[in-house]
Design brief:
Layout lengths: L6 E2 L1 H5 L2 E2 L2 E6 L2 E4 L11 H5 L7 H7 L3 H6 L4 E5 L23 H28 L3
Parallel strand pairs: 1-5
Antiparallel strand pairs: 2-3, 3-4, 4-5
């Protein structure tokens, strides 16, 4: 690890949340894993989903090997100022479309999608029958 400990704020670390610039907070340490994105066995999406938060639980839940833990040293860039890390993340529910209790228009469209082709086919058969030369 680096001999000089650099202390970074959460706001600064959370700005680095892209494929070409990715920093993670694991066990109160900050790692610049940008160069590891393509090599990560779980893919870069796994790393990107852990940005902007304390990723310690995500890292520990997977059960990384000792080799993976040793590899982290070369990506270490400093410590996180723990007073700047939010204690809990606020949950924002995804917006959902309003429930349409009146399904009548949808039902009519489905019936018409079925009946219109049958009516056209029937009309074509009737026209053919009457215009057919005997």
């Amino acid at each position: 690890m680096a001999s000089e400990k650099k202390v970074l704020g959460f706001e600064e670390v959370s700005k680095h949340n892209k494929t070409k610039d990715c920093w993670l907070i694991i066990s109160d340490k900050v790692y610049d894993v940008t160069s590891f994105m393509d090599d990560h066995p779980g893919g870069d999406e796994v790393l990107l989903s852990s940005t902007g938060k304390d990723a310690t639980n995500d890292f520990e839940d997977v059960g990384h090997s000792d080799t993976a833990r040793d590899m982290m040293e070369k990506y270490y860039i400093g410590e996180i100022d723990s007073s700047t890390v939010p204690k809990t993340r606020t949950y924002v529910a995804p917006s959902q479309p309003a429930y349409n209790q009146d399904k009548t228009p949808e039902f009519i469209i489905k019936i018409l999608q079925f009946l219109v082709p049958i009516l056209i086919l029937g009309l074509a058969l009737v026209v053919r029958q009457y215009t057919k030369k005997e």
